[in-house]
Amino acid sequence: MLPFFEEEMKRIEESIEDYRGGIRRNVAIISDPYYGEADLMARAASVAGPDGLRIDGRRLRHDFGILERAPQRIVVVDEAHRLSLRKVGGFDLMDRFLRFVTSEERLFITTWNSFSWRYLEEVLGIGRHFPRQIILPRLDAGQIREMLLAGREEGELTFVEEEAPGGDSKVLDWRVSRRAVMGHNIDLPYPSVDPGVIRSRLKRNRKEKKSGEDAFFERLAQISDGNPGVAEHLWKEALNYPEVRSSLRDPPTIDLDFDESFVLGVVLSSGSLELDELSEVLGPMDLSAETMAALLEEKGLVSIDGGVVTLRAEALKSDIEHERRLRLVW
Amino acid sequence: MVIMGEEMATVAPESSSNLSASATSEGVSEASAGISSALQAFGIDSSTIVHVILVLVLAYVSTRIVAFLLTRFSERFHWLRLGIKMEIPLAKLAIYGFAVYHILGSIFQLSTNQLIALSGLVGAAVGFGLKDLVAEIVGGIVLVLDKPYQIGDKVRIDGHYGEVTDIGLRATRLVSPDDSLIVVSNQRMITQVLANATAGSLEMQVVIDLFIDSSSDASRAMKILRDAAVTSRYVYISSKRPVTIFLKDYPFYKRVRARVYVNDLRYEFKFESDVTKRAWDAFLEAGIEPPKAMVMDPVSTSPAA
């Protein structure tokens, strides 16, 4: 269980207390993938006790009747965004859920993928159904250190300095552009500056002034973008007990065409998606879910396991930047 | 005699052509002597002219390089694309302005009297022969400063519609949806009524009309069209850029219209096609029919038919 988000947990407990006192304010917990919001929901369900029902969006998608039949007064719904799919007719179940949420006297505590939330807010105005919205904040380097070193003795781990991969990259490189000049194609060389290498070198210079451990956690916070799940994943890669290698890889550079980017955006807006669901979205657009998922897997952006396409944690930051740049997510 | 006459006849034109040629060459040499004496009066020799040409060529090459680099840069930082491209005409104006300043100031080293004489000369040239060219260049400067449109905008002018790909000093270039290059002089661009669909934004409103049979379920059709629009891979939605669906009833059919924004104006037609295709797939699945052919066909519905 994450030792953070205590403030957010308090707000959930307040909502439950208010509800028992006669004030109903449905709760939406909004976060990027890998934030570990499921732990918060487990705690919320335990606070609700026998009065609470915990159910996830994927299950509701297949049997909405469970919700209608359940007698419990406090309903905890994990990943409520799974009730919609980005296709014609894909919001029908979400509309039904929102009508249910508004008309019932029960309290709903729900979690949402932040990208789906913003999209559904524009499309369906879901925010008005959930007056209490809790956005999980990103963790800073100190919090990530506290989370990952919890239960360990001081000095138990050794932080080993290693050169980051890709250290021989050039800041200035020459590229070639093919131009048509008087009916002939001519390759014109032009200088190209790589801002990623400049950033990386500046960071390396700053890092030298700090201890290995401080520098490691600052870099971890920066690469994971303060996402606890991603930080934990990268930590496991770096940890070779009792040593921790300082060479954290930069998130991968993304080179996708527009359709591939759209598919990545669909997966990002869900965290993970069954191939069948992806087919439902992509089929009407004449795109093959299997092919597109395989292309993304080949580029190290998703993994496919048991027919489920899941975002790779280490690529999450790059995915988000890429999708925002193309305005495929908001 | 006949032979002589023939000889005379053949000789006479030669001599007259020789005369006219010598007269022309005299005229040319007089004119060139006049020009060179006039140039010398301004202190301009052949090396100065070569220098001027070099500066102009350098300015031209510099504008091409700057435009190329800024375009590359703008494509890398997608969200800044239009903002960076806006600066290209300004950069061109600055480079050419500097070149002219350099030519007048450093190369010719004109005195006040010479500048007055030159401006008189330029005024005469503009008045007689170059007024259109100057009007176009002035139009280009006005466009750069006033910015009624920018590179990357989609504009309609004089019945032409397309994306602005270049704003030169003399003319603006558009690329039409069928990939034709349209060159419109800057003078026309500032004097004609111009419709700018994007005005510097990356997103752009697209209107999609679908026509259905009068007996079809219009509410269902509106919902399907809305779903098709908001689920498109090309859509852009925000509180300022909402999706709006309209219905209009005509005597023999209904029109369902979507006003929706495409996330990048380059995808305008792909967006329209994607929404139309998926909406019609869903219409047919829901039993929503297109209007009867005779209703939509103006020939078959005309009184004569």
Properties at a glance:
heterodimer, A: 330 residues, alpha/beta, Rossmann fold, Arc Repressor Mutant, subunit A, 3 domains, 5-stranded parallel sheet, 3-stranded mixed sheet, 14 helices, 44% helix, B: 305 residues, alpha+beta, Helix Hairpins, SH3 type barrels, Alpha-Beta Plaits, 5-stranded antiparallel sheet, 4-stranded antiparallel sheet, 9 helices, 9 strands, 58% helix, 17% strand, elongated, disordered N terminus, disordered C terminus
Any overview of this molecule?
- By secondary structure, chain A is of the alpha/beta class.
- Chain A is 44% helix and 20% strand.
- Chain A has helices at residues 6-20, 37-48, 57-62, 65-69, 92-103, 114-124, 141-148, 195-207, 212-224, 228-238, 258-268, 275-282, 289-298, 316-325, and strands at residues 27-31, 52-56, 74-78, 107-113, 132-135, 158-160, 172-181, 184-193, 239-240, 243-245, 272-274, 302-305, 308-311.
- In chain A, a hairpin with a 2-residue loop joins strand 7 and strand 8 (184-193).
- In chain A, helix 7 packs across helix 9 and helix 11 packs across helix 14.
- The model of chain A has no long low-confidence stretch (mean pLDDT 88).
- Chain B has 305 residues and is of the alpha+beta class.
- Chain B has three domains: 46-146, Helix Hairpins (Orthogonal Bundle); 154-196, SH3 type barrels (Roll); 204-296, Alpha-Beta Plaits (2-Layer Sandwich).
- Chain B contains nine helices and nine strands.
- In chain B, helix 6 crosses helix 7 (268-285).
- The longest helix of chain B is centred in the first third of the chain and has 40 residues, at 2-41.
- The interface between A and B is medium-sized, with 23 and 29 residues.
